[in-house]
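User: Could you go from structure to sequence for me? I need the amino acid at each position, not a summary. Structure tokens:
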């Protein structure tokens, strides 16, 4: 079993900052902590930011220049630094990890952490 535990969400005013953390534990052999997704009420879950094992990053256009994803492999933790937050960033943010078993991708998700940005 893989456990992903997110933390760092909360209520912040527009223009503010938050830092999310996601720690992986359990059976994490060959697990790849990929990054972050979010889901706003009534919307589908969407990619926010991912980071590869080599450290290359990818961001949704809506967060480029404002969010930064990083990882600490020694701590099995991935982070999302969010700045210049906007009300449209309000969502539940989920950490994602992936492991390939016989070529098949298995995705793991955290329980989510709520981020609410007030105008």
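Assistant: Here is the amino acid at each position, in order:
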């Amino acid at each position: 079993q893989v456990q992903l535990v997110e933390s760092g969400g909360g209520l912040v005013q527009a223009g503010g900052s938050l830092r999310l953390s996601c720690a992986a534990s359990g059976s994490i052999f060959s697990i790849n902590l990929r990054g972050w997704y979010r889901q706003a009420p009534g919307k589908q879950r969407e990619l926010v930011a991912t980071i590869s094992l080599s450290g290359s990053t990818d961001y949704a256009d809506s967060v480029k220049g404002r969010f930064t994803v990083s990882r600490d492999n020694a701590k099995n933790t991935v982070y999302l630094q969010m700045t210049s937050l906007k009300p449209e960033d309000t969502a539940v943010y989920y950490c994602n990890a992936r492991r390939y078993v016989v070529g098949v991708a298995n995705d793991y998700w955290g329980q989510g952490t709520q981020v609410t940005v007030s105008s």
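One structural detail worth keeping in mind: The chain is about 0% helix and 60% strand.
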